[in-house]
Amino acid sequence: MLRRIAFCLLFPALILSCHRNEQTAVQNISQHFCIPDSLMDQIRVDTVRVLPLVNEFSLIGQITFDQDKVVKLYPMVSGNVTEVNAALGDYVKKGQELATIHSTEMAGVQNDLVTARANLALAGKNLASMTDMFKNNIASEKDFLAAQNEKEKAKSELERVETVLSIYGGNHSDYIVKAPVSGFIVEKFINPGMQIRPDNGTNMFTISDLGKLWVLANVYESDIRNIHPGEDVQITTLSYPGMIFKGTIDKAYNVLDSDSKTMPVRVQLDNKDNILKPGMFAEVMVREKTDSSLLTVPAGCVVFDRNRSWVVVYRGKCDVSAVPVEVAKITSRHAYILSGLKEGETVLVSRQLLIYSAITQ
Fold first, then answer.
1. Most exposed among 35, 102, 214, 347, judged by the fewest C-beta atoms under 10 Å?
2. Is residue 14 in some structural domain?
3. First to last CA, the chain
4. What is the sign of the dihedral through the CA atoms of 278, 281, 285 and 286?
5. One domain, residues 82 and 194
């Protein structure tokens, strides 16, 4: 009986003691500690500030050509490829010769050119003769007008043949393939010795200006409401870890894929240095600002230990403390703090884990 009475008297004291220990566990840990001089040069700090709460989510996509900057070259005549002057990946300038095709059709056009020139010369002579005869009242006005009409027809035919040759870039019986725009050869389906035909449907070259690219990304159904054309996004790739590329959501296709239940979106991306290549996989980070604001610190500041989140507050070389914080949300940039910090306080953003361990030993 006495044991029961003693336990009843001690039990509230035990509860109170546990509660005090729990409170102590979440208090600031601030023992006397000075940051060594060897670490001071490596210390970086930031200020606790109030920023709008941002909802952040990522999309997986692939870099592709800007289809508005792509030119496909198809053969305009049939013939045998005798020479190819451009390789896949080459940068070519507008007007540069890419290939030569020996074609009987070109020989026919050259023959048409000779015939058209001869007909124009003959029509000119006939008109000159008819003009003299008309002035001397030997020929009628009808014959004079007919001679003028023949010369105009011959002139028009010559211009037509010359236009065809300029389009073909022909020289005698060769069809010269020239680059219509400047850019990179991103596709090549032509080699010396090949027989080509204009009705085959296969392009010879594809030229693209890689200064502008697209990222085609897939948006899950639950995130569609957060996609807004014109919104700026950040793109990262496996090829360039740590590098962030800026782009803009250009278009939402508003159609869901029946299998994946995702909606494609298009992101326009500047690629002035041509370091990004079509075919690369990319992660697109979308950030949507809300109407709420919270205290924020850089995301890397937060240390998770003892089932809590901690931030190392810096007031001076020998005045640092580990402060328990309640985190509302962590994004790739910021940690949003509900309690534990005050606006304007200074926190460590580098070497914070090392110093936290030293303080809490």
1. 102
2. no
3. 45
4. positive
5. yes
Which CATH number characterizes residue 259's domain? 2.40.30.170
- 8 A C-beta contact, residue 231 and residue 248: yes
Q: Which domain holds residue 188?
A: 72-103+174-208
Q: Are the C-beta atoms of residues 303 and 313 closer than 8 Å to each other?
A: no
Q: Which burial class, exposed, middle or buried, applies to 300 when counting CB atoms under 10 A from its CB (0-12, 13-18, 19+)?
A: middle
Q: How many CB atoms lie within 10 A of CB 274?
A: 12
Task: Indicate the DSSP class of residue 225.
Answer: G
Q: In the Cβ-directed half-sphere of 27, how many Cα atoms lie within 13 Å?
A: 8
CA 139 to chain centre: 73
d(CA 272, CA 113): 45
**Inside any domain, residue 2:** no
pTM: 0.59
Q: Is the pLDDT of residue 237 over 90?
A: yes
pLDDT tens digit sequence for 180-197: 999 999 999 999 999 988
Q: Are residues 196 and 86 in the same domain?
A: yes
- Give the integer Cα–Cα distance in Å for 175 and 102: 6
Asked whether the beta carbons of 297 and 352 are under 8 A apart, the reply is no
197 & 313 share domain = no
Same domain, 278 and 295: no
Structure tokens at 63: 């870099």
Same domain assignment for residues 218 and 277: yes
Q: Does one domain contain both 226 and 343?
A: no
Please, which residues have CB within 8 angstroms of residue 183's CB and are 6 or more apart in sequence?
69, 71, 91, 92, 207, 208, 209, 210
**Residue 218 and residue 130 in one domain:** no
pLDDT in tens, 99-151: 998 887 777 777 778 888 899 999 999 888 888 888 888 888 888 888 889 99
Amino acid, single-letter form, for residue 161: V
For residues 169 and 73, what is the distance between their CA atoms, to the nearest angstrom? 14
Q: At what angle do helices 141-168 and 104-135 cross, to 10 degrees?
A: 160
